[in-house]
Design goal:
The structure holds two protein chains of two kinds. Chain A is an alpha/beta fold. Chain A contains six helices and seven strands; from the N terminus they run βααβββαβααββα. In chain A, strands 2-1-3-5-7 form a five-stranded parallel sheet, with helices on both faces. Chain B is built from 22 helices and 27 strands. A seven-stranded mixed sheet of chain B has the order 15-14-25-24-23-16-17, with helices on both faces. Chain B has a five-stranded mixed sheet with strand order 2-1-5-3-4, sandwiched between helices. In chain B, helix 13 packs antiparallel against helix 15 and helix 13 runs parallel beside helix 18. The N and C termini of chain B lie far apart (62 Å). Classes of the chains: A alpha/beta, B alpha/beta.
Chain lengths: 178, 649
């Protein structure tokens, strides 16, 4: 059997999930033998090829991320999401209690470290969505690994199960939302 | 209720027994069948708010919440079918999407019942769109925060506030999914009738109500929970203390909906940490008149030398000891033994000794048979009363849990409450009748009430024993009708409990207490029911040890005074004047206070949480407080300090 092709996408997130993925200790060796990383933070490949497994961390907070999630969904057979942001909206969803304009104004104009600020409006910059959304609000997701960040053992469990051909659901005693 | 008919149900294919009148959930719990719940809390009424406890019942078209479904003979119930589990997960997903239930920045994460149920049902995502509401957060209370965004509207806080605390501050406001928990008529909690007892906090299954003193300081799983007793006020509530890294993280009532587990703001919040500066080393006043850190060796040497010196020059009678009644029995006993045997003086007293002597004289004037505090009733008798007369006390301020017993009785049994207090007293506003006689005329008022109540007594006897209404109107400044109304209410009571407190004790008038006891006896149908709210947590213990017995104490003018303050707070009172006259003042205390500042020697001692101790509650029940913290280095327990001094003398 050839290697399983994996593509990852880092959306509205802090890198905690990626750190946790790297924290799986020696399992990373088994993983590297079984999996071919295509687009990922470590390979620096820009385009999504057709893959077996797509992996998303982070919520969907901008139109670019929405596009990216849809593209990866179209090009992968199984989509797995890591972390509370991707599963529920997480930290990114904290801004959802406020209107988008208020959030932008706070960040670019009212923030204490800003002088003569201006809300960016270039057409080259992605546009903030009204609300940050969990990934399953935009595309169909096959497998969820919650946690902020997910524990390395959770990620190991989920990926091992996937490599064995099963769609995992974290057992109750493993599941953590924080 | 044991005479209820036994019924048999079939639950999950097994025959189980229950009692008629139980709900299906109660039968399940009694038979150790787990049914998940969120809005259910032992001891509160059932509302069926969360729908997590749904079960399938043969003959019913729909699934039904087991907590509100009456059990009956022959019922066939299933609690865990795939269909039910599907609905339970659905309910959880709806709860999670309805408001803000993101755990990672929640104070309750790890101790949250909603989160635990989500784990149980492996809820790794929600299939419904989130509403992301923007609801207010109420932070104006000193100790409690209500974050409506985390509320699931289970109503446990509303029910515990009404049914257990009896305060009825919290309720539901608005309608449907916009429903919010509101205080009073939609006030902020900090400006409402809330007494900050924290019962709602303990009842809340999520992080919607959290404590300012405990939030983010540790989870239950990170520390150790120790069952102990609150020793502050003499009600003697049972507490569960969560300790982590030698810090108290949280204090919970051991039995929230039962007796002595409800707690008050003092027991639940103010004890968690005390910001007053500790005395961390022995202090000796130097030649410049400043307090200076010293070694234990020097400090105890100075104290023992001074004691010997004063004893030799002026006799042992020139030395007096005062102890706080916050100290446990062990400490008080060793202090009394030290003063009596080692020092040789008979002048020892508690800081609240005058209260004891007033009560004791009042009781002996009333009973004339040598009985003492044992004639008083247990606190629980309030819960069975149909009328409570509160004299000179705001129990919600001095003994909040006792005050809540009165409010609980008022809620559950429609108990009438009469308050007699000449002072401004917010408890009077909650009473059915608040009589506010002119200061000092309480005795006359009680005499007039007695006269009106004693219908059978002959006029001649009446005029001898009681006070005429006309006279009472004259001295109290109250309207005649007000006195008559109160007397009518007292006369119709079958089970009157009289509660008196600091106002009566401060008057230092044994006759007033004798009058109170007399009134209670006149109204009683099955025995005298009187409760005095004593000033400190172990007042009764100290008094029973005989430490406050010395009648000459008020006139004692000690030259050397030894004050055992422990962690009591400093208050101006009679004994301060006596101590003030002393030439040499030794203070053994945990915290810096105006008293330690004028002492000649200060000996640092441990606080309540740093020692084990036996306490006697105000109604005479013995309880034990546990040592949960290690004291800071250099601080010793009171007993140890006293033993060391005794050895040197």
């Amino acid at each position: 059997m050839g290697k399983v092709k994996l593509a990852t996408s880092w959306l509205d997130a802090c890198a905690g999930c990626e750190m946790s993925l790297l924290d799986v200790d020696e399992f990373i060796i088994d993983l590297a033998q079984a999996v071919e990383f295509t687009r990922s933070p470590i390979t620096d490949i820009k385009e999504f090829p057709e893959v077996d497994v797509g992996l998303i961390t982070g919520a969907i907070g901008m139109n670019e991320q929405e596009e990216e999630a849809k593209e990866l969904r179209a090009k992968c057979k199984i989509l797995i999401v890591l972390g509370d942001c991707a599963c529920f909206g997480g930290i990114c969803a904290m801004r959802n209690a406020f209107p988008k304009e208020a959030v932008l104004r706070r960040a670019y104009i009212e923030c204490e470290s800003v002088k003569d600020g201006k809300i960016p409006s270039s057409p080259e910059i992605p546009v903030l969505l009204e609300k940050a959304l969990p990934v399953n609000a935009v595309v169909k997701v096959d497998c969820f690994v919650p946690g902020c960040p997910p524990r390395a053992r959770d990620i190991k469990y989920a990926l091992s199960e996937l490599l064995q051909g099963r769609i995992p659901v974290l057992p109750s005693d493993m599941m953590r939302f924080d | 209720m044991s005479d209820r008919k036994e019924i048999t149900l079939t639950i999950n294919g097994n025959q189980v027994k229950g009692k008629e009148g139980d709900t299906v959930l109660e039968v399940c719990r009694a038979n150790n069948i787990y049914v998940p719940t969120l809005c259910f809390l032992e001891g509160l009424s059932f509302t069926g708010a969360c729908r997590l406890c749904v079960v399938e019942i043969d003959g019913e078209r729909r699934i039904n919440p087991s907590c509100t479904y009456p059990a009956r003979d022959g019922l066939v119930v299933r609690t865990h079918t795939p269909n039910l589990e599907k609905y339970r997960r659905l309910i959880l997903e709806l709860m999670f999407t309805e408001r803000n239930h993101f755990c990672f920045f929640c104070a309750a994460s790890g101790d949250c019942e909603l989160q635990a149920q989500a784990y149980r049902y492996q809820m790794d995502h929600a299939r419904y769109p989130y509403t992301f509401p923007s609801l207010p957060t109420d932070t104006l209370n000193d100790f409690l925060v209500i974050d409506h965004n985390r509320c699931i509207l289970c109503g446990r806080c509303v029910r515990v506030c009404g049914e257990v605390v009896g305060n009825h501050t919290l309720d539901f406001g608005r309608r449907g999914w916009r429903t919010l928990i509101v205080a009073d008529l939609n006030q902020s909690l900090g400006q409402s009738s809330c007494i900050s007892c924290g019962a709602c906090l303990q009842a809340c299954p999520t992080g919607a109500i959290f404590s300012k003193v405990s939030a983010y300081r540790g989870r239950t799983s990170e520390g150790k929970v120790i069952r102990s007793m609150c020793s502050l006020c003499g009600v003697g509530c049972e507490i569960d203390i969560l300790v982590k890294d030698n810090n108290i993280v949280r204090i919970d009532g051991a039995n929230l909906t039962g007796l002595k587990g409800q707690l008050c703001l003092m027991g639940r919040f103010q004890q968690v940490y005390n910001e007053n500066p500790r005395v961390t080393t022995p202090l000796i006043r130097n030649k410049k008149g400043e307090l200076e850190p010293a070694s234990w060796e020097d400090a105890s040497k100075l104290v023992t030398e001074k004691i010997k010196d004063y004893k030799a020059r002026h006799g042992a009678g020139s030395i007096a000891g005062f102890a706080s009644s916050l100290c446990p029995n062990e400490t008080l006993e060793s202090f009394a033994k030290f003063m009596r045997n080692a020092v040789g003086t008979s002048y020892i007293d508690t800081l609240d000794g005058s209260s004891f002597r007033t009560i004791a004289q009042g009781i002996s004037a009333f009973s004339k048979n040598g009985k003492g505090l044992e004639i008083e009733s247990p606190l629980e008798s309030i819960l069975g009363a149909d009328c409570v007369l509160v004299v000179g006390s705001n129990p919600l301020e001095t003994h909040p849990v006792a005050g809540c017993y009165i409010l609980r009785a008022k809620t559950r049994k429609k108990t009438k409450v009469i308050v007699v207090d000449s002072r401004q007293n917010t408890f009077g506003l909650r009473a059915d009748i608040w009589l506010r006689p002119d200061n000092g005329s309480e005795e006359a008022l009680l005499g007039a009430l007695e006269g009106l109540m004693a219908k059978k007594a002959k006029d001649a006897e009446k005029s001898m024993r009681f006070v005429s209404v006309a006279k009472a109107v004259e001295v109290t400044g109250l309207a005649k009708a007000a006195i008559q109304n109160a007397a009518a209410m007292l006369s119709s009571a079958k089970n009157l409990v009289v509660v008196y407190g600091d106002g009566v004790l401060a008057a230092n008038n044994p006759k007033l207490i004798a009058r109170l006891l007399d009134l209670a006896k006149l109204a009683s149908h099955d025995g005298l029911k009187v409760i005095s709210l004593k000033p400190r947590g172990n007042s009764r213990g100290a008094w029973e040890l005989g430490i406050a017995n010395q009648n000459g104490m008020a006139k004692a003018k000690p030259k050397l005074a030894y004050v055992l303050m422990c962690d009591d707070k400093f208050e101006m009172s009679d004994w301060v004047a006596q101590v003030d006259q002393a030439e040499f003042l030794v203070v053994q205390a945990s915290y810096r206070s105006p008293l330690t500042d004028c002492a000649d020697v200060v000996l640092p001692s441990s606080i309540w949480a740093e020692r084990k101790g036996k306490y006697v509650s105000l109604d005479g029940k013995v309880g034990y407080s546990q040592k949960v913290l290690e004291p800071p280095s250099g601080i010793k327990e009171d007993v140890e300090i006293i033993a060391k001094l005794a050895k040197k003398i």
